Amino acid sequence: PRNIGNVIIAGLIVGVITTIGFFLCIVPGVIASIVLMFTTIAVLDRNLSPIDGIKSSFETSKNNIGPVLLTWLAVVAVVFVGALLCGVGLLVAIPLAALILVYTYRSLNGGFVAPAIP
């Protein structure tokens, strides 16, 4: 895929920030995971640098806190249910969670999820 280096770097930065947040009493980690969940999508979609992707994800989350919080809860629920099924459910849950994130990101940023059929 295009921009794969920036996506990997952005993912590592978000992972480190979220991990540090979880070590600081869970709540900062949850907040970090909510406001940074669109980072890799922003980097891929807009061809941004990792830091600009983090800024974009933060702005998207800050400006749309209700839908973003509901999306985060939906993703957590989907992955949790997938994990309950002895891990095999994650084969369905993780792609579904990715689709939920991309759909929400594109919807919140005024983009189309798929081109309109003429």
Helices, by number, come to: 6
**Overall 3D form:** globular
Number of domains: 1
Percent strand: under 5%
Q: What is the tally of beta strands? A: 0
The N- to C-terminal Cα distance equals 28 Å
How would you briefly describe this protein structure?
The chain has 118 residues and is mainly alpha-helical. 76% of the residues lie in helices and 0% in strands.
Describe this structure as you would to a colleague.
The protein has 118 residues and is mainly α. It has one domain. It is built from 6 helices and no strands. The longest helix is centred in the first third of the chain and has 20 residues, at 4-23. The two termini are 28 Å apart. The relative contact order is 0.11. The mean pLDDT is 93.
